[in-house]
Amino acid sequence: MNIDKFIYYAKKESWSQLNLTNLSLDNIPPNLFELEDLIWLNLSNNNLKILPSNISTLKNLQTLILSNNQFERLSGKLGQLKKLRILDLSKNKLEYLPSEIFGLNNLIQLDIMENKLKYLPKELKNLKNIKILDLYKNNLIGLPVEIGSLENINCLRVSNNNLNFLPKEINNLNHLVCLYLDNNNLKLLPDLDNLDNLEEIHLEHNKLKNIPKSLMKLKKLSYIDLNKNKICKSKKSTYLM
């Protein structure tokens, strides 16, 4: 495929969607940033290491998929894509995220699974409209207290990290439907009695010794997995109907 000709045609026809997956790209073609009508862009499954600062020219983007590349860092110019609603950064080598990303107020889904994040910045609190946050398989040892500001989040996935604790502010997330905390090092949980909409919680493969009593008060909770903990009478998944 002649990428330059392909992008030239996309510009000529004012395409709103562009899929450049599985092309072994080492660099993003410069003329791609002339496609100002793009709403959806998929650059996954390539060999990209650098995200040029002129990504900011794609101001109409609503979905940006950069998964399964070689990114170790990202340009703060991403924060200028104010219409972005879905951002997929999964399966890269990111150790941190530029704080500008957390100024994307219209984000409803942020996927950062399978990276190398050690912490989340306080600016996380600015993602007021986020509904899905996927942090699966990073190197997080904790979550910031600002996690409690994500008032519209429905699904939080922090499986397969190194979590030693959860901030009590997680109890503020009363729109949560599913919560994944499995495969961590949790010994205790804070009160979760305010999670009125929680239907599913995964706590398997931790170091919990007791079933949190606050969980039993949640009327919508239909599934809780406590398998592979240190709870004497719960060696298998427990279902609450």
Write the H/E string, N to C: HEEEEEEEEEEE
Mean pLDDT: 93
Count of helical regions? 1
The percent range for helix content is under 10%
Tell me about the biggest sheet? 11 strands, mixed
Number of strands: 11
- End-to-end distance, in Å? 54 Å
Give the spatial strand order of the biggest sheet.
1-2-3-4-5-6-7-8-9-10-11
Shape annotation = elongated
Structural class from helices and strands?
A: mainly beta
Unreliable spans: 234-241
What percentage of amino acids are in beta strands?
Answer: 5-15%
The radius of gyration computed from the alpha-carbon positions, rounded to a whole number of angstroms, is 20 Å
How do the strands and helices of this protein lay out in sequence?
Blueprint: H1 3-12, E1 17-19, E2 40-42, E3 63-65, E4 86-88, E5 109-111, E6 132-134, E7 155-157, E8 178-180, E9 200-202, E10 223-225, E11 238-239
Parallel strand pairs: 1-2, 2-3, 3-4, 4-5, 5-6, 6-7, 7-8, 8-9, 9-10
Antiparallel strand pairs: 10-11
